[in-house]
Amino acid sequence: MTIGKMTALAFGLVGGFALGVWTGPHLVQRADRAESAVHQTVVVPDAEHPREVFLEAKQARAARAAAARTAAAARTARVNVDVDAPALQERLKPVLNRGANMALAAEGFRSAEQFATVAHASRNTEVPFVLLKHRVLNEGKSVAEAIRESKPAVDAGVEANLARAQAQSDIVAIGG
After folding, report:
1. In whole angstroms, how far apart are CA 80 and each of 21, 89, 123, 169?
2. What Rg do the C-alpha atoms of the chain give, in angstroms?
């Protein structure tokens, strides 16, 4: 390195330091000033009617509990629908590809819900039904694992839950 380059580098460093010392106080808000964020007072308004606030919170908790009970009742109220039921196959026919053999598609599934879940997951994620069916039935994977393996960019858990909810809705509509 030549003397000129070393001198320029030294002046650059000294100049940068001087610029930082000069502009630092203007860029950073200091705690020793009265207008500092540390010295600002936050005013929290008092509740005008603490009893009303308490009652609103209690009603909100009651509403959440009622919703949870309703959801639990819907989960426990299983409708028994056979995989080969014509009503189920008629309902899932638009979900599968046009011209699909419904008896062949339903073959091997343990329950109508499993069949409908795989069918809805296939439609929602655009993964071929046959591929998802193979991964779930033959490889023993869950619907979420099968989706994740087929389409890694998709949130498989969300898609599997959506497909399961759609399947349960189909089964309840058929059975009820």
Report:
1. 77, 14, 24, 13
2. 32
The reply to whether 96 falls in a domain is yes
C-beta neighbour count of 142 within 10 angstroms = 14
Q: Check residue 31 and report its DSSP letter.
A: T
Count the neighbouring beta carbons within 10 Å of the beta carbon of residue 91.
19
Residue 62 within any structural domain of the chain: no
Task: Give residue 164's domain range.
Answer: 81-175
Residue 125 lies in a domain: yes
Q: Is residue 58 exposed (0-12), middle (13-18) or buried (19+ Cβ within 10 Å)?
A: exposed
Number of folded domains that form the chain = 1
User: Quick check: is 33 in a domain?
Assistant: no
Residue-level pLDDT, tens digit, the chain, 176 residues: 789 898 999 899 898 888 887 777 666 655 555 555 555 555 555 555 566 666 676 777 777 766 666 555 555 445 566 676 778 778 888 888 877 888 888 888 888 888 889 999 998 888 888 999 999 999 999 999 999 998 888 888 888 899 899 888 888 888 75
